[in-house]
Amino acid sequence: MAYPSCTETIAAYFAALRLGAIPVPVPALGQKAGHHRVAQVVEDCAPTALLTNGGTSTDLVATFDSRIWADARADDVASAPIDGDDIALLQYTSGSTSVPKGVMVTHANILHNCSVVLDHPPVAVTWLPQHHDLGLIGYCLFPALAGGEIHGFSPATFIARPQLWLELITRVKATATSAPNFAYDLVLDRTDISDLVSYDLSSMRIMQMAAETIRPDTYSRFLRALAPRGLDSKAFYVAYGLAEATLGVTSYGSTALPVARKDLARGQAREAVSVSGIAAATRLMSCGRPLGNTRLAIVDPSSRKSVSDGTVGEIWISGGSVAAGYWQKEDASLKTFGNKLNGDAWNYLATGDLGFIHKGELVVCGRSKDVIIVRGQNFHPSDIEVTASFALAGGGADVAAIEVHQEGAPNRIVLLVEEKRRQKVRLEDAANAVQVDLGIELDEVLLVPSRALPRTTSGKLRRHLAGSMLLDGLFEVRERWVRPERFSEPGETPFAWLLQRYGLTGDETENFAQIGISSLDLVGVMHELQELLTTHGGEDLIAAVDVRMIQRTPVRRLVALAAATETATMESIARLRHEVALDRAEARKLDAQCMAADAKIVPAFPPVMPPPAQDGKTLLTGATGFLGPFLLLELAKRGRDVVAMVRGADADSARARLRRSLESSGISRDWCDLVEAKTEIVLGDLAAPGLGLSGYDRDRIESETSTIVHNGAVVNYLFDYLHMRDANVEGTKALLELAAGRRTKVFNHISTTFIFGWATKPVLLETDGNTEMALLDFGYSQSKWSSERIVANAAKAGLPTRIFRPALITPSTEGGGNAFDITIRLLKFMIDHGVGVSAQNQVSFTPVDIVAANVVGISDLPYTLGETFHVVRDDFATMRDVTDRITDQTGRPFEHFALREFVPEVIRRCTRRDILFPLLDFLINSVDNISSMEFKRYDSSRYQEARARAGGLPDPSLDDTVGGILRFMRRQGLDQP
């Protein structure tokens, strides 16, 4: 049967059965891509006749001795007697790892599989090729047997216009459809989110992902995009099946499982249930539970014994859907279909697929023949391919990872990358990502022409064939990356990926913070050490291994610690436990002592402080941060001349940096021009001795300014107190001394509500100051607390001051802002993954333009000197209120969880590619504190009164505030999953 997608296929199939013939579906003869496959099928089964509706003639037609059948009338042919064990069709396998074989699917097989797959007469929509088992059996035979209806179009039409799929579902109110992973990606990539509003998927009862490896990101991305269009999450699921089992084996999978890569390589599937496992985890989609009475076992291929849940093995299947064997291949049939297990009476089908059972559901890892062995560990090509694809094109690159075996030479791991029009790629980016994420060094990355990778009819990569083609020189290589010589084998030294990236030996006496590695890499080091502890029996040490410990510990010590862990005995782990506990206790003690001493600092003031100057310029720190550009704008609007202290190599680069921060904050060109006209630049650095000011600039500031707005600070939720102390504490002290110099200046200090740490007091007043230093456990809150105490000491010594404590500053109502803080990172993650939290914690989101206007306005009121203001929202709101507004404005739904359930959901879903990832440990480690603060509220009566007297700006509605956040995300390109 060689037809393009058409109704004749169904008629021809049943006509062949009536004649007593065995149908053999193959691609249409005019499809050049399928010519080789058809030739293999013809050679294998030696058909006596060809059914076709014409198409392009080929040399294959000449191989048939009989006439081409056409236009036979059913009335002219007597029905052949049919038994359940008779062959209903020969379904040739995809050939992803071998030559296609003809699976003998019986009538009983089809009836059994139909009964467990379908639960209603479907209104089916399909574009799948009808020579493929899912297209023919799933969407031609099953709907016919169940009394349903079929609506279809060709695969070529789908590729040309994938939106037609959703249009047809909407028009006919379809209840069933299925497609491989790539189809769901194609729909989203070719469709603007705004265009999805015209579709209605509320009729769907079965929307299935199957036939190839399912990417969790694709599943979640499609569900998020189409849930507002009626797609029920219970109707959208993942299935597993194969031709040897007629069609479906398991179904109704909807869980993305994070699995530790190191354990998976050793044949164990351990779910990453703590943040320490996230960096070293791969996410695999569950394929659901066995259908009907299908028996499923995971088997060790060497011992041929079943293994426990969570152990990777070969998937074996038994039941009424398992086919009769391969056509005229007795040995292959016995080897694949005739397996016995644990003394069972049943024969089992050995699928050749690898997987494991998790909570009763099947998780498929890959094909056993595709496994790549590195240093005795098994890696699945799909892991490498997903990592490389994201590194090259955000998940949009078509790649294949293969292990090339060549006699007389060591095996090589090669990545083949298909070239795409209008898409530039850097091949080394893929190699670097695979090395960092997986610890695997690729030997080569090759760029080959578009559509050069061999695939099966269902789109699966034929990796073994690709390897043979590579050895035979059949790929046109357009660009090649070859692994450079490395200084050591990866794995010989802990953190080898990091040492190589920064050119380190592992013997350095400096710590990573002193060397200056990025925050994300610090998190990576922490996770690698935590993963080693988990693997080698030191799970209880994980809580002690945080970014602060990583920052403070010399590189040499960390490498030795990790190496000792890898070969640890129970005795050495106990010794290590004691050592780490001492280190942690010593660090906490040192922080507390340092903070207590800093809190007593009184800046060096003159014996007699003159009255504050009444006129002069305003010195602003932190001008290029998130709030700084808006403070500059507000000061310029009020006619103030400003001296902005900015870091830079020279005045020109500092001014260019300031201009970039203004423009990237969304401030209009005219306002940027005004701000620049009213602003002078001085080079300075809060963390440098003497603020890094030249003598000339210090003299100018001393003599020309009358007000300081101290907005600058290092804002980082990972760094420890000592790492932030120079800028946030010593910098504040130096500025206070500058304020009390030759000319007394009013000192306006931008602090934060974080100075209260994790306080649980029901109402925090503006007169409160957390003088007891309670519940402060991360560097940013600790350093801001200390700096505020020094400002308070300066006020007692006679310096005129004000303290402003904003809570969470969000983008302006117009979407302005220039940085991703913890709020944006968390909301972006929640939107991408469709998860929300139902806790009643107060969420005080105040737009940055409102904060700036009111801080400057209140600073103009003389009576406010000496006071502290909570710059928070007047009205109470929760994160649930925020996500409800996001749903109202975007249509994106959220599944809400209680706080303690929300955190495990975040852990399960978060990957290194989420912008929340660097702050994940901070969030997880803070959950108990956040929970205990659920009913804490901020009083802001002074702020509200002063704001009214200054003619300040009232809070915008929560709708407008959320609208500003969403506009900011669009400006920054964060609106797409």
The quaternary structure here is single chain
What is the terminal separation in angstroms?
42 Å
User: Helical element count?
Assistant: 33
Strand order of the biggest β-sheet: 25-24-23-26-27-29-33
Shape: elongated
Structural class: alpha/beta
**What is the tally of beta strands?**
35
Query: Poorly predicted ranges (pLDDT <50, ≥5 residues)?
Result: 66-72, 486-491
What does the main sheet amount to?
7 strands, parallel
Strand content range:
15-25%
Helix content: 25-40%
Mean pLDDT across all residues, rounded?
Answer: 85
Return Rg in Å: 33 Å
How would you sum up this structure, described in words?
With 977 residues, the chain is an alpha/beta fold. The strands form eleven sheets. A seven-stranded parallel beta sheet has the order 25-24-23-26-27-29-33, sandwiched between helices. The protein is elongated. The model is unreliable at 66-72 and 486-491 (pLDDT under 50).
Quick overview of this protein structure:
The chain has 33 helices and 35 strands. It is α/β, with parallel strands linked by helices and 977 residues long.
Secondary-structure map:
Layout lengths: L7 H12 L15 H11 L41 E6 L9 E5 H11 L5 E4 L6 H13 L3 E4 L2 H6 L2 H10 L3 E4 L1 H9 L16 E4 L6 H11 L9 E6 L6 E6 L2 E5 H5 L15 E5 L3 E2 L4 E6 L4 E2 L6 E6 L11 H8 L11 E10 L2 E7 L4 E3 L2 E3 L1 H13 L5 E6 L7 E7 L8 H12 L5 E5 L14 H9 L7 E4 L13 H7 L9 H4 L3 H17 L11 H6 L2 H12 L3 H30 L17 E5 L6 H10 L4 E5 L4 H14 L4 H9 L1 E5 L11 H10 E6 L10 H19 L6 E5 L12 E2 L14 H18 L4 E6 L1 E3 L11 H12 L1 E3 L7 E3 H12 L8 E4 L7 H12 L4 E3 L1 H11 L10 H6 L1 H6 L4 E2 L2 H9 L8 H14 L6
Parallel strand pairs: 3-4, 5-6, 6-7, 20-21, 23-24, 23-26, 24-25, 26-27, 27-29, 28-35, 29-33, 30-32, 31-34
Antiparallel strand pairs: 1-2, 7-8, 8-11, 9-10, 12-13, 12-14, 14-15, 15-16, 17-18, 19-20, 21-22
Helix pairs in contact: 7-8, 11-12, 19-25, 20-22, 20-27, 24-25, 28-33
